[in-house]
Amino acid sequence: MSQPVTLQQARSVALAFIADALRTMHVPFFVIPVYRGDPPRVATLERHRAVAEQVMRRASSADWVARCRPSGGEPMHEVPLNDLPADKAASGWAIYRSRRWPKSWFRFGPEAGCVLEFWHESDGAWEAPSRNPVACLVGRAAQSLTTLDFDGRRYPTLAGLARPPWDDVEGPIDLVYTWVDGDDVQWRQTRDARLAEVGGASKVPPQSREDFRFADHGELRYSLRAVEQYLPWVDKIYLVTADQQPAWLNTDHPRLKTVSHHEILDADSLPTFNSLAIETALHRIDGLADRYIYFNDDVFVGRPLRAIDMFASDSISKFFRQPWPRLDPSPWVEHEATFVGSEKRTRDLLDQRFGRRVTTLLRHTPHPQNRHVLRDIENEFAAEVLETRNSPFRRADNIALATSLHHFYAYFTGRALPGELRYASVQLDAAADLRDRLRALGRARPALFCLNDSMEKSSPPARKGRLVARFLERFLPEPSSFERPGLGDAS
User: What is the DSSP string of 307-346?
Assistant: First the structure.
């Protein structure tokens, strides 16, 4: 298998292409630092515009295109770079190689390129035509040249722009997945034995033991593809499993490590079939960064995101709320549905600690986490954490540590803020319009989305599996470096 085609590589190529072309004709330029995850930006002065545009036309091959946003106007359509118009109203050009994948919604547009923009001169100062996160006005004393790194290559920049944005997130950010193969025969035998130990199926709520909770439609493969494309700033990825791994997974990948439940949970807690129990111990992973993002394998990134979309600063995480309060304020009762019960138990702990009653549920998205917050919770609510950790199947008296308690505890202690990203969820049910809903999701491509499986008995698993597999392949057809070569397509 050839190397995957990634958004980050495309950006790096575009930046090098523009820089090398400008150097050829001795057009002075400088690179502007951006937030982690944003396309790179190159600037030259307005007085060099005509030459710079001429250089780009001559340097272009047929597959390079450009798009501009005129001041106060709407974005222009793509134009071939070799036909770049002389448009002084354009504050700059997004220059990129437009690429499409057959029978797919996935494509490379302006987000896969580099912006070339034209700065104005006024009283010795240089002024940006559009906002950037570092400095939009650079005086003469800060115009001396230095260099900065982008993807392993050094480029010129101004002394006044040489530092990263003050509000960007620095340092490593890891990612943690939990995953299970519910079709594995040995795993199913172990689950059934564990069920017998606790008194049989009648002692465990259906929603905690039904096959849908452990179903695998191949989502992890595509979720990793999305991470490689849209979260290039993620450092290491940890896959937490019950000593399982997908056959397609490239376990030799230098940024990927599989983690057994045995490495983070005590023997008394194992084997476990309770995601809430596993989530109480994710912060125990050896070598895990202080900041990480927790993913279920049915959660996806649909567009390029920045580190600041997940963390407000090095010590402040973000969380994503449902648009209106939907948690019933009634007291917790023993026979609650497990999801509602765990949310109410979490709510009650927060009320006892902070005197604030939470009635807002959070969306099923990636969950930014801070290890120091989780350690504080583990110390303060030791009994409740241990009770959940030792529950082999979900119960209504469990707490939702990673997906709820972490966020609100951090918020009430000044270490989390609400975030806003476009989100969608598709219920994988038996409705006849499931195919249409998946297609609409693919065309819309929200920033975050979830394929939420259903315990609906009437939903034919084979049909559902085929629809999900086709959707995912159309959504992200480009293999990732986390896949072993030579195993064919994901379906």
Answer: GGGTEEETTEEEE-B-SS--S--SPP-TTS-HHHHHHHHH
Q: Which residues contact 152 (CB under 8 A, 6 or more apart)?
A: none
Q: Which long-range contacts does 373-376 make (Cβ < 8 Å, 24+ apart)?
A: 373/317, 373/406, 373/409, 373/410, 373/413, 373/415, 373/416, 374/282, 374/283, 374/401, 374/402, 374/406, 375/283, 376/409, 376/413
- Residue 9, C-beta contacts closer than 8 angstroms, at least 6 positions apart: none
Q: In 3-state terms, what secondary structure has residue 367?
A: strand
In 3D space, the residue among 280, 291, 305 whose CA is nearest the CA of residue 416 turns out to be 291
**How many C-beta atoms surround the C-beta of residue 267 within 10 A?**
6
| Amino acid letter for position 241 | T
Return the pLDDT at 1. 43
Domains of the chain, start order: 7-161 (3.30.460), 174-475 (3.90.550.10)
Residue whose C-alpha is closest to residue 15's, from 94, 82, 92:
94
The whole-number pLDDT of residue 325 equals 93
Residue 204 has φ and ψ, to the nearest 5°, of -125, 130
- Does residue 447 contact residue 423 with C-beta atoms inside 8 Å? yes
Radius of gyration of the chain (CA): 25
Alpha helices per DSSP H over 171-286: 185-197, 206-209, 219-230, 261-264, 275-279
CA-to-CA distance for 237 and 173, rounded, in angstroms?
9
Q: Structure pTM?
A: 0.94
Whole-angstrom Cα distance, residue 86 to residue 422? 36
Low-confidence ranges of the chain (pLDDT < 70): 1-2, 69-76, 211-215, 454-460, 487-491
**pLDDT, tens only, 409-452:** 999 999 999 999 999 999 988 778 999 999 999 999 999 999 98
Residue with tokens 């629809």: 467
Distance CA 83, CA 93 (A): 13
Whether residue 271 has a cis bond before it, omega within 30° of 0: yes
